[in-house]
Amino acid sequence: MVELLHFLLGATTQRTSVWAHKALTRHTFELLMDWPGRHDLVKIRRGPANPKVFLQPDVTRRSREEQLWADEFAGDVSLKEWQWAIERDLYRVPSPESPVSGRTMLSFAIRRGLDGLLSPIASHARQSAQDAMVNLSHLFGLDVGLAEQYRTLATQDSTRRKLVQATKDPVWGKIVGRSAELRGEIGAVEQRVRELQEQVKEFRVLPEYENIRAEADELEQEIRRLRDQDTVDRHNLLEMREATADVAEPDGRYLEEAYEQLGVLMGQEVRRRFEDVRAFHQTVVRNRERQLRDEVARVEERLAERAGERERLGERQSALLTMLSEGGALDALTALQHVLAQEQARLEALRHRFQAAQTLEASRREIEGKRIELETATAEDLEYRASLTYEANRLFNVYARRLYSDARTPYLAFNPGKQKIQIEAHIDTDSSRGVHNMVIFCFDLALAVIAHRDRRGPDFLVHDSHLYDGVDARQLAAALALGAEVAEEEGMQYIVTMNSDDLTKAESEGFSPAGHVLEPHLTDQPDGGLFGFRF
Q1: Are 109 and 492 in contact (CB under 8 A)?
Q2: What is the pTM of this model?
Q3: Computed from CA positions of residues 328, 334, 336, 337, in that sequence, does the dihedral angle turn out positive or negative?
């Protein structure tokens, strides 16, 4: 029954496996309920096989024209539209961006099984305390913004703890790193970026870059060729100078000495022929010497000419190399700019990592400081809203005393805390489950009355039989009587699903179920139950 109410009031089918039962998939369920601002009942239909919700009339429309037209309109709406209509009309949520959740608040009005009865201030076991406080703050009339700040800080602290744990991992630790190491790396990359920026700033694009480079290469080859020729000529020049030094006229006196030693008289004819030979030889020597001097002069002239040519070519080559060193081709500039962009991106990534590392290292102190500030602001807000918290405490106290007379000291306290707004529902107890469940009963009843009075909640409260497990018969009877009395006084509806043997116990303690029991009566026979089968 509880799951059926949640299903018709916008719950997703993934929340429970009940609606996956093949016996239910073909059925459509219907709920009639009154609606704020309307005199006629709203019919709600929904089937497990249909993703839409049928409404008659369509209360999801808001403008006057839409409302007038909606009086005669019935049709399917999306689950999201239906959930927003419940938040807007039953809980007076100001906008879809509000941090409160209609589904969560409905789980306080209709608690779901044992999972919803673990704590009065939680609607299910996996719910965070901060999430519960956001929705309870709305229902009690407290500052939802402060409760949302607690939830934000809790999320930040949870993220911080996970990151701190991740930094201990050898792989994930490199993603964030440590601020001291990152600071040094950032300095090195910044220097590299400055150098590249300076190079780009001073870079001149040469339209004839390739032609200039080709000319410089040709000049280099020509200078090398001239140097090779100089080497050959210098070698030849050295040989010619040595040959010039070796040229000398022959000495004829050795002939006269030879004739004398032989005892032969050198005649005039011999002397004349020898003089002719010597004159011829002197002519040959002089011609040879003159040829060598002329060739040396020609080689020296060529060396001098090439020296001048090399100087001219060297000056041109130097000018071209200067141009190439000061500038370059457009593709070279593009490549340089690409390297600069890569280094700048690397620098930005390092800065983000450095900021994340600093934030992580300082986040614990920052979060702690914000929590202290939030605790102070919450204390001031609770003081400002003392009348609201006083009335909630008074109702809880009255309801608890109706169940346990003056034997116990019940209270509902609202206190600021560093982790959340602390709401404590207490009845002096021997830690029995029955007393624990009655704390939840009194809390839910006080919450429902407070929210309904200020139009921040619906006019119904639903409990299933799990709430009364372990409760003494006297308290059971007192709770049912109190629920019926409060519902009548406040113009509300209190719905209880209960086994007949428990109801008999309440009757034995004076509770009269007349006028309260709704058909059908269900049995635990194999063909009994709400749908004729066991879940």
Answers
A1: no
A2: 0.67
A3: positive
